[in-house]
Design a protein that fits this description.
With 310 residues, the protein is mainly alpha-helical. Among the domains are: 36 residues, no CATH class; 140 residues, MetI-like fold (Orthogonal Bundle). 69% of the residues lie in helices and 1% in strands. A hairpin with an 8-residue loop joins strand 1 and strand 2. The protein starts with 21 loop residues before the first helix and ends with a helix. 25% of the residues are buried.
Length: 310
């Protein structure tokens, strides 16, 4: 009498951390590993090098860098122009974030309906976003020209006898570069809000309308809460983009008038590093910017989390 061979049950694959198969970790490494390497090489290492450089006094024309500890940070805190530059940065950033988001949402609401030629209008609104900031800066130099610019001509036609000189008065110069960048960035916020509106559930607004809610009430109570994730995303991305604006300021005002009339922190990094050749001090300003951005972003994320939980 012959015995039948023993049946062997298939062995489960090897398990790694959290009980997941090792092949899942291998797949994760293959898919994510290259991105992590690129981030480490092109983002995290330059960031660490920048922070390290902020503790040195280094003229880029001299190969020798001298360690000076926190002296660059003390100088940044005590310089006369620091708070003017910080104020310029805050005003420019807040104005472009709020302005481009409000106008972008308004245009998205207007064009989120069946209108003749709406695709052409949508394309025209989005087009400036993909155009070089330097090219837009050159174009708007003619718009704000004090002698024959479009803005000056319109103000004269309206009846203003005295019109501002956007290139000589610091406040108006900051207004000029802010409006220019807001116009460039408007297409981005418009497209994001338009995509979000097209993904909303119309029955909520219809139910509110049946209940007798006014248009403003539906907008405030029904539409805006549904757009909260989009608004949060845009507030962070537009803020980050605004803080990095260099080309428009460089082309239109070069940080002036009166020295620092339109100088922002990112433009100060360029000035100190490549005009004054003080790479260590430029790295200090960049590090301060990074720390402020990190704190603001963490705060925004926490506010968003609290809003979702409530």
């Amino acid at each position: 009498m012959t015995s039948s061979p023993e049946r062997t049950l298939p062995q489960p694959p090897g398990r790694g951390l959290l009980g997941r198969p090792w092949r899942d970790y291998a797949l994760f490494a293959v898919l994510v590993g290259p991105n992590l390497v690129l981030l480490a090489v092109f983002t995290y290492r330059p960031l660490m090098d920048n922070i390290r450089l902020s503790f040195f006094d280094w003229n880029i024309s001299d190969p020798v860098a001298t360690f000076i500890g926190f002296e660059n940070y003390r100088e940044w805190w005590s310089r006369d122009d620091t708070w003017q530059i910080v104020t310029n940065t805050v005003v420019f950033t807040l104005a472009t974030v709020v302005g481009s988001m409000v106008l972008g949402l308004a245009l998205a609401l207007l064009l989120d309906r069946k209108l003749v030629g709406r695709n052409l209008v949508r394309s025209a609104i989005f087009a400036p976003f993909v155009i070089s900031g330097a090219a837009i800066g050159v174009a708007f130099q003619f718009v704000f020209d004090p002698n024959f610019g479009l803005v000056q001509d319109l103000l004269h036609r309206i009846g203003f006898t005295s019109v501002p000189d956007f290139y000589q008065e610091p406040g108006w110069a900051l207004f000029m570069v802010t409006v220019t960048y807001m116009w460039k960035n408007l297409g981005y916020t418009f497209v994001i809000y338009l995509a979000a509106l097209q993904g909303l559930r119309p029955e909520l607004s219809e139910a509110a309308e049946i209940d007798g809610a006014s248009g403003w009430t539906r907008f405030r109570r029904v539409l805006l809460p549904q757009l909260r994730p989009t608004t949060f995303f845009l507030s962070i991305t537009v803020m980050l983009n605004s803080l990095q604006v260099f080309d428009i300021i460089n082309v239109m005002t070069r940080g002036g008038p009166l020295g620092t009339g339109t100088t922002t922190m990112v433009y100060q990094v360029y000035n100190e590093s490549f005009r004054n050749f003080r790479a260590g001090y430029g790295a200090t300003v960049a590090t301060v910017m990074f720390l402020v951005l990190l704190a603001v972003t963490v705060y925004q994320v926490r506010v968003m989390d609290r809003g979702e939980r409530s």
